[in-house]
Amino acid sequence: MMSHKIAIVDDHLLFTGALEDMVNNFEGYEVIFRAENGKDFIEKLKESEEQPEIVLLDLNMPIMDGFETLDWIKINQPKLKVLILSMNDDELNIIKAVRNGANGYLLKNTTPQNLKLALDTSIESGFYHSELVSNALLHSVNAKVQKPFGELKEQEIKFLKLVCTELTYKEIADEMCLSPKTIDGYRQVLFDKLNVKSRVGLVLFAMHQKIID
């Protein structure tokens, strides 16, 4: 059985050693390398014969921190999924991470079961929106004026509903009988209209506006 490849980026070596053992004990997962910061991650990524599908990324690291690393990944490796694994439960950091493209955010005191669920869900759906993330983003939405749901066009609403499913963007394009390039356009328009930067942000907006249940 093929294993999903995982990379860990965190400067706490005792923690990452234990985390590697934990992930390797999950059925269907394998840690292919650990890195101590973003710079170290980029170097090991270039040297590695195998490429990770998910990066477990800390935020507070020397030399190149988690936010800088996340920015680099989203520009240079946009298909690579990133789960933030941090001690920091500050809402501003959670919102910043998710809006900058993180596929999920967990605290380091999460249970092994929740970590496994986050990995499974990220592989299957492309993102993992825990209660922690949902609460932080919904508070953010409530704290400022959002463009109302009524300003969205019919096709944008249809696209938004499909974004909330497990379909890939290519499958959404097929479902809507549109080209992938057109779908990319819808996605960017909604990112700009709703002031979000990730699929998670779109899903949470749809939930908040009751576009989906």
TrEMBL record:
Every Response regulatory domain range: 5-123
Gene Ontology MF, one: DNA binding
HTH luxR-type domain span: 145-210
Superkingdom per UniProt: Bacteria
Modified positions (4-aspartylphosphate) in chain numbering: D58
Keyword field: DNA-binding, Phosphoprotein, Transcription, Transcription regulation
Protein name: DNA-binding NarL/FixJ family response regulator
Organism classification: Bacteria, Pseudomonadati, Bacteroidota, Flavobacteriia, Flavobacteriales
